[in-house]
Amino acid sequence: MTERLLGILTRSFGQILLPGIITTIPLTILSFAIGMLIALAAALVQAAEVKGLRKAARFYVWMIRGTPLLVQLYIIFYGLPSMGILLDAFPAAVMAFSINVGAYASETLRAAILSVPKGQMEAGYCAGLDYFQIMGRIVLPQALKVAFPGLFNSLIGLVKDTSLAANITVLEMFMATQRIAARTYEPFALYCEVGFIYLMMCTVLTKLQKYGEKRLDKAGRMTGKPVTGRGGVICWK
Amino acid sequence: MLEVKNVHKAFHGTEVLKGVDIEVGKGDVVVILGPSGSGKTTLLRCMNFLEKADKGTLVLDGMSVDLAKAQKREIREARLHTGFVFQNYNLFLNKTALENVTEGLVAGRKIPKKQADEIGKKALDKVGLSDRYDYYPQQLSGGQQQRVGIARAVAANPKVIFFDEPTSALDPELIGDVLTVMKKLAEEGTTMVIVTHEMSFAKEVADWVYFMDGGTVVEKGTPQEVLTCPKEERTRQFLRRVLREIDYYI
Ligand SMILES: Nc1ncnc2c1ncn2[C@@H]1O[C@H](COP(=O)(O)OP(=O)(O)OP(=O)(O)O)[C@@H](O)[C@H]1O
Ligand SMILES: [Mg+2]
Question: What is the interface pTM, i.e. ipTM, of the complex?
Answer without folding.
Answer: 0.93
